[in-house]
């Protein structure tokens, strides 16, 4: 289980280091495959449909003013509390979702 969590966290860290928010991290969005030649497994993040790059607040306010206010993709039980209060999904809310995945795996 620890190896699975570390691999998922590594994928999330890669996204965040490139200023990308996954926005729908949950166990159902993790693919599992066998590692060839070993008895271990590979865990890879999937479903990047809700992902977005973090951009400057000035650009974001311009985008928000012209876009409609549809509900952002995501799974309610894995979303951070601040998302319920209307805040945008961020790398921090991804970390909360990772915590929910950890809870589910343990």
TrEMBL record:
Superkingdom per UniProt: Eukaryota
Cited Pfam families: Pkinase
InterPro entries: Kinase-like_dom_sf, Prot_kinase_dom, Ser/Thr_kinase_AS, TKL_Ser/Thr_kinase
PROSITE patterns on file: PROTEIN_KINASE_DOM, PROTEIN_KINASE_ST
Annotated GO MF terms: ATP binding; protein kinase activity
Domain Protein kinase intervals: 1-106
Name of the protein described by the UniProt record: Protein kinase domain-containing protein
């Amino acid at each position: 289980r620890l190896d699975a969590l570390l691999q998922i966290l590594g994928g999330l860290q890669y996204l965040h280091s490139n200023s990308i928010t996954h926005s729908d991290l949950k166990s159902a969005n993790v693919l599992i495959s066998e590692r060839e030649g070993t008895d271990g497994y590979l865990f890879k993040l999937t479903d990047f449909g809700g992902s977005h790059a973090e951009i400057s607040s000035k650009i974001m306010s311009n985008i928000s003013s012209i876009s409609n206010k549809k509900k952002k993709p995501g799974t309610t039980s894995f979303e951070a509390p601040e998302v319920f209060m209307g805040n945008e999904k961020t790398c921090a809310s991804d970390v909360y979702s990772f915590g929910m995945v950890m809870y589910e795996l343990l």
